[in-house]
Write a structure and sequence with these properties.
Strand content: under 5%
Shape: globular
Structural class: mainly alpha
Number of helices: 3
Distance between the termini: 35 Å
Order of helices and strands: HHH
């Protein structure tokens, strides 16, 4: 199974979190939340075909989701 992601979103999001492990865990947890039906924090057109992983990366890149050490919750500073 191949998982593809938007390289631009990945590059932008990666600059927001210094620790690679923290970044991977935080983005994957957010992608799971989105897959379970949690509300998106970025605008989405009705027929949006982006993956939950792409949406999670975009949320981090736009600082809608802040990933911090030891924090299982996600902060949205621009709702």
């Amino acid at each position: 199974m191949e998982i593809s992601m938007n390289e631009e979103y990945l590059a932008r999001a990666r600059t927001k979190v210094d620790d690679v492990r923290l970044f991977i865990n935080g983005v994957s947890k957010r992608a799971v939340q989105l897959a379970k039906g949690w509300r998106r924090l970025v605008p989405s057109p009705p027929n949006d075909e982006r993956t939950c992983l792409d949406i999670a990366l975009l949320e981090v890149a736009e600082e809608r989701v802040i990933i911090t050490q030891g924090d299982d919750s996600y902060a949205s500073d621009k709702e």
